[in-house]
Design goal:
The structure is a single chain. The chain is mostly helical. The chain is built from three helices and no strands. Keywords: Membrane, Transmembrane, Transmembrane helix. This is Phage shock protein B.
Length: 82
């Protein structure tokens, strides 16, 4: 009975120690990445900038698709091939 109790205490201690170690690793990684600091504002600005750039690129691609799918463009291509 006593051996089972000792084994149970060792297992619980191991699980708690392992959990604490993983939480500490997560804390260090978050601290290294700067989560929860003033750097968040910089990241938000970067996301906004990238979203605007992405929207501009989408508009450019739409214009290019429109040009390529126009019948006049196809006709010019066929004339150029002759």
């Amino acid at each position: 009975m006593e051996n089972e109790f000792v084994l149970m205490v060792i297992m619980v201690s191991f699980i708690i120690g392992l959990s604490a170690t993983e939480m500490f690793k997560h804390y260090l990684k978050a601290r290294q990445l700067g989560v929860g600091t003033a750097d968040d504002r910089h990241l938000e600005d970067k996301v906004t900038q990238l979203s605007l750039q992405n929207q501009a690129l989408i508009e450019r691609v739409q214009v290019l698709e429109k040009i390529v799918t126009e019948p006049e463009y196809e006709l010019k291509q066929q004339i150029n091939q002759l």
